[in-house]
Each structure stands twice: as C-alpha cells, then as structure tokens.
Amino acid sequence: MKSLIFHFLFLCYMLSICNALTCKSCSINDPFCSLPRDDDIRQCENDNDICYSWFHRVGGKITVERDCMPIMSPEYDLMKKMINYDDHGCVKRMGTFDCFTFCSHDLLRYTSIRRVSTLTEVINKRLKPELNSIHQAGTWKNERILSTSQSSHIKIENSPNELLNFCANNYLGLANNSQIIQAAKNALDKYGAGLSSVRFICGTQTIHKQLEQRIANFHQREDAILYISCFDANAGLFETLLKEQDYIISDELNHASIIDGIRLCKAKRLRYKHKDMSDLELKLKESFKDNNNDNIIRLIATDGVFSMDGTIAPLPDIKRLADKYKALIFVDECHATGFFGKTGRGTEEHFNMIGKIDIINSTLGKALGGAAGGYTTGSKALIDLLRQRSRPYLFSNTLPPSIVASAIKAIDLVKNDSSLTGRVLENATYFRNEMEKLGFKILGDNHPICPVMLGDARLASQFADEMLKRGIYVIGFSYPVVPKDRARIRVQVSGAHSKADLQRCIDAFAEVGRQLKVIK
C-alpha cells in the first residue's frame, strides 16, 4: 500500500510540474547537467525495473535521490516523454531546479532513453566466464587483417614487412590470378553485382547454368546445383535426402559442416572411428538390426581429405563395404577439388575411381579461385530433388555473377593446364620430407595440408607468433577446432610457393622449433 501511495504522489508531482510550470530541457552547457554516468550505475533487482537519479536543487544546495521504478508504469512513461537526447530531463520552478537521469548510457539504441538492458546483462553474465576461459586456455583466436590480395606473399595491417603465407586454402595460387580477376570484372559489367533473389524466383542467369554444367562435366556426373557455400550444400543435402527410417554413418573427424548438416536430418546417426574400416563395418551391421527393408537408405559420409589432419579417406575400402551392405557414399571434396588427383578431380581420381561415388559436395572457395560458393553433384534425380526441397538453396540469395564467372575460368584453367596440380603436390612432398628430417611430427598423407603436431595449445599459439616475427604467416589450431591436447600448426603448401619460399619456411620452423625445445 505504501508503494502505491508513493507512486501516486510521485505521479501527481510530475504532472503538476509539467502542467502548471514552465518545462524545458536541460542545457548541455549547464554544469548541473554533468550527472553521474556509467561509473555510478545502479542495477535494479527486478528485471522489469529501471534505475533513475533525481537531482533537486534549491539555491546552492543539491540533493540526490536514486531509486528503481517499473518500466511499465505511468511515472516511467512521463519521465521518458520529458527526457532529451542528452539523457537528461529537467524542469524549473520558482528558484528550484530539478533534473533527472536514467542511470545508464545507451540512449540512441532505445529511441528516447538510454538504459542498461537487463537481458544483455544476463547474456554477458553467462558469456564472460566462457570468454575468460578461452583466454586463460590460450586458445583465443585473433584475426589478423590482410592489406593485400590473397597470395603466397602478403602483407597484414600494422606490419610493414611482406610475409610468406602458409595458411591459406589457395592451393593453386589462383585467388589473384589475372585471368580469373578479368573474368569476374567482365561478369560485373555484363550481369551486374548480384541478383537480389533466390534461384527459383528471378535469380538464375545463363552463367549459373553454365557453371553447373561445367561442374557436372568436371566430375563426370549428370547434374550439379550451386549454393552460396559448401557449408550450405552440406546443410541442405542430408535433411532433404534422408528420412526417419534411414541411416547415416559418419567418420568421427568429418568437417563441422557435415556434422551440422547431419544434425538437421531425422535419420538415425552412427559414427565410426576415423578411417577405421572394421568399425565402419560394425556400424553398417548395426544399421540392419532393426530393419532389413530395401527402401532404407544407408549413407556413408566422409571427407575426401580431412582438413585438420591432411589424411585421405580410404575410398576403395569404403566402396567395398558400401557394395557389401548396399549403402550409398557421400564425399566432401573441399580440400581435394581442383588440385588433388592427376587432373584435379579429387580423391575419386586419386584412387582411380571417377564415377564410383554416389554424391559429391565441394567448394569454389578454395583451390578454384578462392572466392565463395559450394555445390552438390550427382544424379539428375538427386539434383532435381534438391532444387525443390533443399532449404539453403530455396531461401538463400543466388551466387553473385562475378564469383560464378571466376569459378568457370578457374575450372577451365585446371582442365587445360595439368602443371598446376603437379606443382602443388611436388611442393607438399618436398616440405613434408624436409620437416620430418628436422624431427617434426607431420600428420597426414602426401597432401598439401601438413599439420605440424605440438600438442599444447599455448605452445602452438606461441610457435605461430614466433614464426610471424620471422616473416612466416602460419596459424596455431587448438580446441575446439581440433581435439584437446592435439594442438598444431597447420601448414598449407601452395603451387604458388617457390622452392626458395619453402626453404625459408622450413628454416624458420627449425629455428623456432629449437628455441621452444620442440626439436633438438
């Protein structure tokens, strides 16, 4: 009851001020308007309340009242109407001068007042401990800002020296290729910057169909469908294809986009140990326990090349088990398309198995120009279904024409110049051999992804910093990108690196490795 009486009297007081007196805004130049700010914020216990300060001056004497009031109250509405854009409201009456301010500092976000959002405080309270733990674990990921185009030689902001880049997916060095850049410019002139539409409304141009046909021909498939990224391609495939009665059997080290895509579908999920064919067979047998229905789809999902380890999926063995248990095979070829295999057709070609895999997803954002875009290629029936039902395809903007044109040019370059693929694999072999001679542990098969294993997250971060001081740009990878205690420097060798570039990188590794007692 006392609270109701107080709020009633307060409301009457405020109304009398505004109705009977001359009201005006507080002058920014008035010293009295320099009211307490963020250093004196009071937090209200009730999430639906807001803190305010009321300053009352008679002559030279100032009194301050601080309290909380409900946001859903007449008093709050009235004070909000009186407040100006300097976060104050003031009224003047017969020698007295009253000012009030809300105890926070965020006016422009909230139209007429600034206040600390209690919801934001709740979120921050939850997030800050996690952010602090990331810092304490030494796994905080800083983003260095490039001031040049993507290349084997780059510059970053706040660093005057040129760096050797050994951490990009630019396997063929095509990201700044002059022919690809010109193709993108021509497409901008002819087709514009973008479509402002999804594909099925008014977002398909001639070059989109040309690229899809190029991709299908490149992989020797019936059709292909474009996405804004391969992450979207993976998100759109499993949910569309698989039903509740189906099974998906996935390698435990598959990329996050495959894992997230699988989570979106309703199929039963089984996971097998990395590249372990005995475990894969056990999981395939397990999928027959409940139902032997021939209409059930059993889909084995694997990366062709595993991005953190540089290991290659044993496709011949997977194919043998798939045939035995009547399963389909899905392969993500992001770290293989364009440069792996004799003519860049990926792990299928590497194992002389072109056409043997049922579904392939890959990217245009790595070896093939490095811009963006992903795709699925396979049977015409599969691609037709994805065009009708795949949510990332149906509800995402079309790939921009400039990116489409640059990808077409990149595929043409790969098809017409086999030396591109040969150079990157020669460089990878040289780098791996020299690093192993020094005593470093290098994971993976003979692939341009060369993980230098260090184990400790802080050590990996420190190692990368020391390499940067020597003009070598590499990144330390740690949890949650890789398993705990499996931190590493992931070196990515490019066909654009010269032998001198490779040797300079190797020499820097040797120097830092001895300094940090990783090698003798």
From TrEMBL:
The keyword Ribosomal protein does not apply. Its EC number is 2.3.1.29. It holds the Pfam family Aminotran_1_2. The keyword Aminoacyl-tRNA synthetase does not apply. Its cofactor is pyridoxal 5'-phosphate. It catalyses: glycine + acetyl-CoA = (2S)-2-amino-3-oxobutanoate + CoA. GO terms for biological process: L-threonine catabolic process. CDD domains: KBL_like. This is 2-amino-3-ketobutyrate coenzyme A ligase, mitochondrial. It comes from Adineta steineri.
